[in-house]
């Protein structure tokens, strides 16, 4: 019983680490978390359309590499 | 103060751990600094650096957070106030740390320390550590904080609103000039690494179709699967390195991938033009994924490798070249060491990134310390590793790789003789053997830092995995890794430069501002590529080997930007009425101003042609007057070009100095005005009604 609970907790912890690692890798190349975006739209703009995963990806990709003030600069 | 109360309540165990860190750091510093005659293990350098970082982070950055900036975890950040799920998103602090670190870590911290190693490992180590603790990380931290309190506004915007419109425009010109020099010098590093190297050239060329394949896969087959795309790209990249060996050994294929520096420069210029007008999903984005992940992976691999292999440092602690007579770059320790190592100690460029996307994702103000100060410490650690990689190579081989042919000749025998006469004994056989080990025909005069770093990394990585049989593989892996993210920067940087040119020209010709218009785009792209392409080509045909000319210019401009960012920070501290703490930004500002102005002055007016641009121009004009042609110029026209390029470099350097002085004056004016105002007068956003968070204390 206790072992089962511990195994479950370990698995949950591993999953949450994996999620964080994946989020980090994605944000490193300029892709914010899609689930967070959907959740935000659902909560704050329930009647507005939500971008599909593909559209979200393309939108973020285009914005990362299209310079604008305060965006698109990278280091030496 | 909350921080002080907290500190007083800490347990004795807490303090004894910190005492231990202090002792370990002090011992490591003593070993690194005081041992003479016997070799020092690289691990001591790592221990000295890491202990310094820990202490600086625990105490100095906390002091800045609590006393100087008075961060307020309860205050709403831009991410909280303007949350849109896209740009403004409250983000986990470790995730954001990764994002910020990936954005600030580039080729800079890998190149500067390698060049500076000619003076021995000690001066560079001390500057990297002291520089990051008191200048670099302070700048990144404070600018990130200031931008977070201003809705994530950019550095240029903050200068405009806090110091005035004119300083804002001056700073914008400065940033554009840095961009141009940065792109030229990075492209030059790639050219120097690939010239006459069919193996390297093949693998780097192969990255273009590989990236396009990834792009098409990610666009049409499996959208948004960055992990899959990158895995496919990585496998193909490794295959390209293996294939490259076959290419370099084939009598028919090798000549097809063997190019001189001049032709590679022209190809890169053409590449920069085409790549920056292609849709981003096709080439730029997929290669960005590859280069970002490869960069992080290689940095981790190198750190693990150094800790396991524990190589000995073969370079002396302080070499004879501190007097300024070194072959890698000319000029004495002060000011040129502090210009050569910019990124890793203090980099003005980071002020642009700290006021870019990161401030829009901060969850709460207390996390700015980890992300701003912490990520810069990490970058500094990368610089220490690059320094180690350069110093574990036989010094004779190091100088053979980093000296221009004009100094050491073009055969192994000549080079070995010259370098041995400097006191770094090496045999011609050792040089040819090294070339064979890494799969190249020669390693002589492979300047620019990348090949040296590649040899050092190959030493570490092959001791870890594969032994001497894989030495050549790891060497070309390291070359590819640097070329990959430099090309990404060239592509993305050209787009940024184009945008800035359109913005600046738009002030006079409004039609130029149309970013959707093809003619406006083409004109601006041509101007951007033409500008860095000119400096790149001049660097390739430069009598001193190019890096010698361009790297100091880049260093001066980068430190100039850091000075500008710190002046802005100082002005705002005065406006916030934090008078007791302004020394935190004033001290590094003074140091940077002294370094940039001294280095700038010497680059323009120094009598030695190796240092002073005007002296070099005069040397060539005098030879012209007598009808002589000086190497490496081959014709009268070449001679005229060298003269003109040196005058242009001198003018650019003088312009950088003028920008620094103008910013000091504007800063002083703004500070006087702030002093004359009885209350806090800074323009913050997001606290209660109109921003005067400072008035609360």
Give descriptors for this structure.
heterodimer, A: mainly alpha, 67% helix, B: 697 residues, mainly alpha, two-stranded antiparallel sheet, 2 strands, 71% helix, 1% strand
Shape label of chain A = elongated
Specify the structural class of chain A. mainly alpha
Largest sheet of chain B, described in full? 2 strands, antiparallel
Determine the most extensive contact between two protein chains: A-B, 44 and 61 residues
The termini of chain B sit apart by 11 Å
Order of helices and strands of chain A: HHH
* Number of alpha- plus pi-helical segments of chain B: 28
State the gist of this model.
Chain A has 76 residues and is mostly helical.
Description:
The complex is a heterodimer of chains A (76) and B (697). Chain A is mainly alpha-helical. Helices cover 67% and strands 0% of the residues of chain A. The termini of chain A are far apart. Chain B is an all-alpha fold. Chain B has helices at residues 2-9, 12-34, 42-69, 78-81, 93-104, 108-116, 121-148, 155-163, 165-194, 198-221, 226-249, 253-256, 261-275, 284-309, 333-340, 349-354, 368-391, 395-402, 405-408, 412-421, 428-437, 450-464, 471-506, 518-540, 547-575, 583-605, 613-625, 636-676; strands spanning 40-41, 312-313. Chain B has a two-stranded antiparallel sheet. Classes of the chains: A mainly alpha (76), B mainly alpha (697). At the A-B interface, helix 1, helix 2 and helix 3 of A face helix 5, helix 14, helix 16 and helix 23 of B.
Topology, please?
The complex is a heterodimer of chains A (76) and B (697).
Chain A: H1 2-28, H2 34-44, H3 53-65
Chain B: H1 2-9, H2 12-34, E1 40-41, H3 42-69, H4 78-81, H5 93-104, H6 108-116, H7 121-148, H8 155-163, H9 165-194, H10 198-221, H11 226-249, H12 253-256, H13 261-275, H14 284-309, E2 312-313, H15 333-340, H16 349-354, H17 368-391, H18 395-402, H19 405-408, H20 412-421, H21 428-437, H22 450-464, H23 471-506, H24 518-540, H25 547-575, H26 583-605, H27 613-625, H28 636-676
Antiparallel strand pairs in B: 1-2
